[in-house]
Amino acid sequence: MPIGELGHAMESLLEAAAEHRLSLGRQDIPLLETGFDRLHTMVTRVGDRRAVAIPEALVAAFDTRALGHALELPAAASTPSIPSVEAPAFADFVPADAATPAEAVEEPAAFADFEIEEIALDAAPLDATPVEAAAPAPVEDTVEAPSAGERAFEPVADTAFVDASALAPADEVAPVEEATLDQATLDQVMLEQATLDQVVEAPAAVEFAPLPGMRPLSAPMAFGVAEDEDASLRGNQEQVRVRAELLDRLVNYAGEVAIYRSRLEQQLGAFRGATSEMEQTTARLRDQLRRLEIETEAQIIARYQREGEQVDAGFDPLELDRFSTVQQLSRALSETAADLGSLHTTLDDLTQQYETLLLQQSRVSSELQEGLMRTRMVPFDTVVPRLRRVLRQAAADTGRQVQLKVEGAQGELDRNVLERMTAPLEHMLRNSVAHGMESAEQRRAAGKIPEGTVTIAVRKEGSEVVLQVSDDGRGLDRAAIRERGEARGLVRPGMALSNAQLDALIFEPGFSTAEAVTRLAGRGVGMDVVSSEVRQLGGTIDIQSDPGKGTAFLLRLPQTLAVTQAAFVRIGETTFAVPIASVRGVGRIPREELAKGAATYRYGNEEYVLHDLGKLIGHAPARAEGQLQMPLLLTRSGDLHVAVTVDQIVGNREIVVKPIGPQVASIPGIFGATIMGDGSVVVILDVAPLVRRLAAQPEVVEDVPAAEQRAVPLVMVVDDSITMRKVTGRVLERHNFEVLTAKDGLDALERMIDVVPDLMLLDIEMPRMDGYELATAMKADPRLAKVPIIMITSRTGDKHRQRAMDIGVDRYLGKPYQENELMRNVFSLLEPVRSDA
After folding, report:
1. Contact 444, 450 (CB under 8 A)
2. Average pLDDT over residues 83-101
3. Which domain holds residue 577?
4. Which three-class secondary structure string do you get for 489-517?
5. b/e for 758-791, b at 16 or more Cβ within 10 A?
6. Within this chain, do residues 138 and 258 fall inside the same structural domain, yes or no?
7. For the chain, what is the domain count?
8. Domain annotation covers residue 585
9. Chain mean pLDDT for the chain
10. Structural domain contains residue 111
């Protein structure tokens, strides 16, 4: 950005003066005035929606002065001083026929003519040769001869490049030393970059000859035309300023609309399934009614033949139908079934129309959400000035020469992502200067240029934004990293570690290889903050370091925080989501390998450490019942490659990320939450912190053989109410029990064919097989007879209680039960089982 380049150059000079690295004198005032004037001009042009160019010469002048060098005089100046020049009288600047300033009060038009001539003089670019200090050329030599009837300039000396001291009396002019700033050079820079921002309309009678090398002024424009064009320009480029808080709320509402749309789609799918079942039921009803009619008619005929009844001697039963009451009812039912078929057809047509409308609404909703997401996108170059300032400050503190190079600065990121990543990027820049960049002498000795370079490259890959921060410094000092890791107990002495594992140690909290604490290094909070923020954003960070050549950090971040892709997995009856950015693939592993104690899984020429997701989150281990192989979800975070076993991989879909409370957010491994189409809340997991937390726990050596280790107790909940099954199951899961559910007695018996629970929670009133019948069947089966039974029912009378006790039920509780009472009975009944084990 031109304004940013000039502003940074001026800021560098002022910072150097504020930090007493150089002193500014009177000779620097014209340079600063020129810079401020140019900056004001550029801001004005941008406000008028006009393009501006980078004033490279002026920026170079500020950079040169900021480094402590004085600007030299032009080579064409043969004498080191400027000759004395008398200040021209005011009348010399006034055309012969112009009014004097005193008369201008009474004649505004004449005074305006004088102002116009002054503008023309100031706007004349002297791009030909440097200033001749000894003999300044008069303006009349550079102006074309006026034609007849035109107003001519009086010959005056060219004072455009005369220093301010030249306006003093001749005997007071002091010679200019070599260190003095060359005013002519500054003015030439200013005039070369300046453009005529406004067109001043002169009186019709006054015309001027064009100056050589000057861009012709545009002709006066009619007022109505200019107004129409300005209105058209404003209409095409109107902008609206919206508060960020309001925009975030709108994005949140768009996410809510997407959630409700998903719920509508799911409910419509359920309705479609219900209509399909209705069609099948109607078909079965028709078939049964047809069979009923056939049977009824056959029975009537048989009865007539047996009894010999003749209602009408003139007609045989086969010649005249006679209808009984059953036949009449069956025919009425047939008509009802036909009506049901017509109703099903109508419902099916309405369902198709609703699906079409929902599809259209989905398209509009998606476009609305995408539009709101685009409004939250900001280009990366909005933070580049801040990053440049941080890098300059770090370089000044360390006395090193470093420049910042940005590639792809026009790449867009979500505003929240960019705001949250600004501080980590600043940490990385300071870290590159403090740890990675050598001094100028060391770089020369290594065959490098004295000035180091830190490069930030921004690019988009799919739904991710990739930020690569690299430098051409010395690279990571892995020997120092290992030494500090051993000193802090993070690495055992002599332990074999790969380069990636050593590099990952710099992300540990409080880790630093600096010998002393300074403003830039030594506290061990820099890269830890970077890693933590990247993980919280659902991204990953990788390190590539070459000794003597530099270090590169590769950050992969979601393009937006509001919507992301996630893979869904299931542990038991609980579903979790994992950000797709950290997922590398899915796989399967035979149960035999897990039983043998396999520790790794190879996929794509990479080794993944095996973990059980159930154990990582404190649930029951993954079982994947009914499957010959265990499903694996392969994740990666930096150098950490993990393959987690799950019960089921449901699939992947786009989700709306919802923030969670601070109490839940403080738990390692929880990224956020989302709402599913059925209204259920699904927790979004970050696998890497879960694995690191497990690895950080002290290892406990078990003397008990693996075959004798007790598994998590399995409790079966049998109830026809889905609410009771879910509520009771969640209570048990909170106390680290594995839960198995059944909807009635027959369902429970079918499930107990494969697995025998450690405890049974049983209701009485259920379809197909009630609780009394199930308890009786269990006590009669030697395999199930020792399973403790707690009966939970709304029938709390003595008669029902006594019947349960007679069967052999161990505990009898009424609904609604108290959680403390239930868990006290559960632990009491499971204690003998644990003692026997």
Report:
1. yes
2. 42
3. 563-696
4. CCCCCCCCCCHHHHHHHHHCCCCCCCCCC
5. bbbbbbbebeebbbbbbbbbbbeeeebeebbbbb
6. no
7. 5
8. yes
9. 74
10. yes
What are the structure tokens assigned to 662, written together?
A: 């601070």
Render pLDDT for 162-192 as a digit per residue (tens, 0 to 9). Answer: 343 344 443 444 444 433 445 545 555 454 4
Q: CA–CA separation, 133 vs 799, rounded Å?
A: 122
CB 524 within 8 A of CB 510: yes
> Taking the alpha carbons of 260, 261, 263, 264 in that order, is the dihedral positive or negative?
positive
Mean pLDDT of 496-504: 81
**Any idea which residue has 């979800």 for tokens?**
633
pLDDT recorded at residue 308: 58
What pTM, to 2 d.p., does this model score? 0.47
Query: Does residue 793 sit within a domain?
Result: yes
For residue 520, the model assigns a pLDDT of: 61
Assess whether 673 and 600 both reside in one domain. yes
pLDDT, mean of residues 485-498: 81
Q: Which of 235-249, 505-519, 791-805 has the lowest mean pLDDT?
A: 505-519
Tell me, yes or no, whether 387 and 371 share the same domain.
no
Task: Tell which residue, 369, 126, 179, has the closest CA to residue 256.
Answer: 369
If asked whether residues 279 and 333 sit together in one domain, one would say yes
CA distances from 11 to 41, 251, 381 (A): 18, 38, 18
83 with 220, same domain?
yes
Least confident stretch, 249-263, 311-325, 810-824? 311-325
What is d(CA 161, CA 573) in angstroms, rounded to the nearest whole number? 85
Q: Which residues pair with 545 in a beta bridge?
A: 551
- 227 has a pLDDT exceeding 60: no
Residues 144 and 283 in one domain: no
